[in-house]
Amino acid sequence: MVESSKAIRVGIEGVFYSLTHVPDLVRYGSKPSREIRVNPELERQLKKQLRSFSAATAYAPHQVYIGNITPAELSHLPKPWYDKLIEGATSNGCFGDLVDQDRLYRLLAEADQFNLVTLEEQWFQEHAVQNANTKALRVKPAVDIKALCEKGALGLYAGERLVGAFEQGHAEDANLTADVLLENLAAKVTAAHSLGSLLEALKLSPEEIDFVISCSEEAVGDRYNRGGGNLAKAIAEAVGCANASGSDVKAFCAGPLYAMVHGASLVQSGICRKVAVVAGGSLAKLGMKFESHLKKGMPILEDVLGSFAVILSPAKTGEPCMRLDSSAFHPVRAGASPQAMAESLAEQPLAKLGMKLTDVDCYAVELHNPEITVPSGSGDVPRTNYLTLAALAVMRGQIKKDQMEDFVRTRGMLGYAPTQGHIPSAIVYLGHALDALRNNEIRNALFISKGSLFLGRMTQLSDGCSFLVEKS
Fold first, then answer.
1. For the residues 21-26, what does the mean pLDDT come to?
2. Looking at residue 456, what is its pLDDT?
3. Buried b / exposed e across 430-455, counting CB within 10 Å, b at 16+?
4. Which of 102, 273, 335, 414 is deepest in the core (most CB within 10 A)?
5. What is the pLDDT of residues 55-67, one digit of tens each?
6. Closest to 180 (Cα-Cα) out of 252, 284, 285, 32
């Protein structure tokens, strides 16, 4: 490896993950909303397959996400996970939590600065939580809520009960419709929840944060600048990071790791002392594969908004850190084949440090939950990625062909991340990696994320980023 004195390290103080369970917002996901417009009967079928908050909490992949069980323990649990729920599961984890829909509605109303959210008065009184923002919330009788929805507002439901409305921001701007603004505000409040929770857990004051980077999947803007908005600064404001500025990093699913590299660079350069990397949930991706789940009699598993927050600061001896000098990007000249991606994002960055593929104890790749993707025909994404890495190790003579399965088993893991773009691409494992490093269970972990740039119809290129995490 590169000599320790030459290594460039940035500390990772902590991470927080949150899942907000929003069954009654699944209908507003991009795929469900489009299909329901064509076939309204699908909405009735969808409602019948929605999970309760207790079922979402007891779902094993969610318990891995918030840190109550490890990825290794998940591999020993009986399947299907959605049927074999964990008894005694709690909504608070070692490094995360699950938030229910009622709380999200309150968070949306509290964060609303433009009179977009209206809550039904009786429901609000039933679910009111005393805080400084309570008086600022808009509450109206139920008849007004219904009238707002008849004029085009999105209804906020609690089961069959209409409890609120979310209005558009402008009648003639397609970027300020109610569904787009709900997506943006949901991303803001879920990211703010994760960042605020992390600061509390680390006993840090919000004023200690110098810069916030958002890698959420939303595109905040209006008709003149569709994606140019700065959600990061809005999140900083919501959490009380009065001394911080911020900006957004966009790279499709590779965004979180790019954001980590950008944040670590700010710390390493001395520009900032503490940087927060955050992402809020993607409402558009709710229910993305709901039709295949309905056909197989499964519950709707894409019913959560995933968010996270990470604090980066100068490295401390003996604590987990990023090897900033290991950072790698998928260059324009590289091909998009699985082998080319593995060479660019795994083999080449390790070579810079004098390491081989077999010198990495754990690989964090795209950790999509296979219970969501396999029924829809998308396959087991993590396993495919691990087999690609193992095949490359065989090609380089580092393992034998009959050792590929052992490579996958010992250096990989089952996927457990919800289909929330920014979450599956490696960052979801960071909390577990920090624990494993502190407990001397692993020496290092390589984080690899990939992105599909063709989604924007601007290029056929693929994208990706990677870096090594170890102890300082």
1. 98
2. 86
3. bbbbbbbbeeeebebbbbbbbbebee
4. 414
5. 999 999 999 999 9
6. 284
